Amino acid sequence: MAYLRVKSIRGQKYLYLVKSAWDTEKKTSKQTIIKYLGIESDVTIDDVPEDYRNSKKISDYFLNQKYFQPKVQNELIEKLQADLLSSFKNGDFVTAHCFLESYEKIYGFESFIDEVMVPLIGKIGTLGNSKKIDLGTQTTCYNAIEDLLNMIIEHSSVNPSKKKILICVPNGEQHTLGTKILQTKLSLKGNTVYNLPPFTPSSLIMESIEHDAPDCVFVSVTLDENLLSAKRMVEKINEKYGLPIFVGGNAIKNNSENWDVPIGKNLSIPKILKLIQSKKLQILTTA
């Protein structure tokens, strides 16, 4: 039986065509190299001798591996973004769900958010700003995106086992897409996330913290005029509960020097979760 074997040498992966034969004397399977094929990322099925190309194991290997080649993945992502945008505009949520499910089987939900969804949100915003799509179409697209994110959250929240995290926005904020993406990414890591809606009064935010007992709080601020309100909220939460607080959003990027607390820029989700686990910092802000 012939199959492919990957061998790693000093961080570089090499591909070999090998076969196994039963050694009757030693009563064990013996592996023999048929051909060295080259560096794994450079090998195609054409490098395999013709007599072995029809092997199911070998053809399946190349069928699966090709999706993880950067060029193929980039082309797939561009096409998927175009197809998703078309389905959003037409209000075809069923097709959008099918696109998500197909992509997730190969690359996973996290890749869908980072590589497909976040850049697509930026494209939709650009189309709206340049008047290439009207406000109604833009809103329809954002609603469809939230629908997909809710689908991912439902899938990831079956057995949450890590931290409890509360996400909120200060008075005056109306955005939900950024906090929904954050909620989705944190949920995918096995956390229980309470994402409070816009216009939730400060008193109810405090009640939610009291009731849900989160391990940390995220405050998202998009508009510069809401920075003062966000600062007051951070002060209240820190004074009463002493929880780690992460403050993020476009307003923080533009006004990070105005915060009289440590600034931690461009923190990844794993890094944030590690900080939450350690609880070494009481107030953190992340742009």
CATH superfamily of the largest domain: Cobalamin-binding domain
Average per-residue pLDDT, rounded, comes to: 83
CATH topology of the largest domain: Rossmann fold
Level of helix content? 40-55%
- What would the principal axes of the Cα set say about the shape? elongated
Q: Give the ordered list of helices and strands.
A: EEEHHHHHEHEHEHEHHE
Q: What oligomeric state is this?
A: single chain
Radius of gyration: 25 Å
Structural class: alpha/beta
Q: Which band does the percent of strand residues land in?
A: 15-25%
CATH architect. name of the largest domain: 3-Layer(aba) Sandwich
How far the N terminus sits from the C terminus, by CA atoms, comes to: 55 Å
Largest sheet: 5 strands, parallel
Low-confidence stretches: none
Tell me the total number of β-strands: 8
Strand order of the largest sheet: 5-4-6-7-8
How many structural domains are formed by the residues? Answer: 3
Total helices: the number is: 10
Q: Would you mind describing this structure in some detail?
A:
This protein is 49% helix and 18% strand. It has ten helices and eight strands. It has 287 residues and is α/β, with parallel strands linked by helices. It has a five-stranded parallel beta sheet with strand order 5-4-6-7-8, with helices on both faces. The radius of gyration is 25 Å and the shape is elongated. It has three domains: 64 residues, no CATH class; 87 residues, Methionine synthase domain (Methyltransferase, Methionine Synthase (B12-binding Domains), Chain A, domain 1); 122 residues, Cobalamin-binding domain (Rossmann fold), CATH 3.40.50. The termini are far apart.
